[in-house]
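Notes on consecutive records. When two proteins share a document, each keeps its own sequence and its own token line. Never mix them. Below: protein one.
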Amino acid sequence: MIHFVSFFCFYSSLQRIISLKIEQTDNTIYLETRWILWCIQKNKKGNKMINVVAGIIKNADNKILIAQRNIHKSQGGLWEFPGGKIEQGETKEEAIVREIKEELKIDIIPIRYVDEKVFKYPDKTINLIAIECRYNGGTIIKTEHEEVKWIKPEEMREYRFAPADEFIVNNLCTCDNSMCK
């Protein structure tokens, strides 16, 4: 008879899965153990790294969709590129499609990875991943945001963006970037 037992063991910033194989034959018991290690990304204060996707959503007129954050939430009233957290087991492309559908009720097609950057806040650390997307239909229905607008890349500087989204604005506003065309 063979039994398999797996359990988690936490130590510092490492997480271990211990897999124990117990095999019993006649009057002898054989044990085999395996340790699987992986790292949990943490900042110096012990906050877990949160991976967040931001969609640079372009329409047929080459305008980009921006959204104003809910005034009752963190950084309320500032503008951002819509998106959200990547869930466990999700790719960044799956996450951006899901988040945009949840928040704005529109369909998008992820085109390409643009860039990413880590931002440390007092209560959390986020890794913001920018993804260029193409608007693929649907009527915008705001479920999270105060306002949404389609704007030209050169109009970006007219809006006050959340600090994490500023790196995307800087990326878009350099005219050697393909997004400016």
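Protein two starts on the next line and is unrelated to protein one.
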Amino acid sequence: MATDALEIEQARQKEVLRERELMKREQEQAAVALQAKLRGAKQRRRHKQTLDKRKTSATALQSQWRLKMSKKKVDQMKAAATIISTRLSSVHRGKIVRKELDEKKAAAVKVQALAKGRRERRQVEKVKKEKTEAVVKLQSLGRAKKERKQVAKIKKEVRYVCSFVNLQYPCFLVSKTYDCYYFLLLFSYSYSYSYSLS
């Protein structure tokens, strides 16, 4: 019986040892599982932080890229606006300059027209004056010719009268002086007047 009790005790001790070992294993498995869970949670946390960092860095990169592109677009728009405003202002200045040039041209044309008109009027007046002088000269030449014809006719009559007077009245010897011609001229006028009446 002592062997039985010893065997029972040994069996019980083995059982206790087995239980302890089983418990130890369970505890180890539980510790391993807990450590795995903790490590997994830690790893997941790290992974999430890494993902968040990547996400935030990607977001930051995207925002930086968008900012750069928007700045570039704004700069392009500013450059385009500057070009457009420059061209518009140059077009506006061009219109003003062309308008001023047209006004100056119109004024110059008007001044030239006035000067040309004045010059033409002077030339016309000069031509009129020359024509008038020519007509007056022609008329005076015509009158002088007519007068010379009349004087020649009168002289002829005076000569005739003088020869008649010298023949009829020898006491009136008529010399060919100016006074004598004047006297005879008056005489011939009265003679021709009385001759024309008869």
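For the record: The first helix runs from residue 2 to 168.
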